[in-house]
Amino acid sequence: MSETDEKQYQLAQDFKNQGRTEEALSAFLRVIDARRDAPESHLEAGYIYLRTMKDPIRAIYHFERYLQFKPQSPQASQVRQLIETAQKEFARQLPAQPYEGDLERIDLMELVKTLKQENDSLKRDLVAAEKRVSQLENVLGQARRVPRPQTEAPAVVRREQPVRTDGGTATPDPEDVPRTYTVQSGDTLSTISRRFYGTPSRWIDIFQANRDRLSSENALRVGQEIRIP
After folding, report:
1. Fewer CB within 10 Å: C terminus or N terminus of the chain?
2. Cβ neighbours of residue 178 under 8 Å, at least 6 residues apart?
């Protein structure tokens, strides 16, 4: 849809023809906000700001936006003259002192216009930043609502039993271990441990089970009966 076919643009022209200038301006500005290119609405808004609102700074802004969209239009020369008129109007509104001439006033007007453009740019950046913050807050809220996966319990590592040279395991079934043993010649707690458990390291268990019978680990006597835990 072309700009001039926009409902708001046609409504603005109706308001303008009826002399309802402020309502016309609001409608033209709505067209500008809704479209990426709205040169005719910029031109009309510039006219209203310059002639009715007596706001040359805003008028210059809209006239320049028109020229950005239509630099070669038949009206471009007239719009440039309107910009000069607005500059002079702004200079006329400034007090004569402490400025010595119109040139200094126009320089000040250029500064004010630049500051206004920078302010508009900062406003756009702020809106974009606020939108980005809102998006991030939504993402964070969704992430908080997602249930965390259950932490898996660490796998239990089972040690393989050492294999004896005769093919059996180092630790025999407790049911196969006799409860008592009669010490024979040449026995030590280590050899008895190896005999029943397949490893000499269990001698300390045998010694602890027989503390009431053995004063030390070397106090075995031939024929003595000891417990096998």
Report:
1. N
2. 196, 228
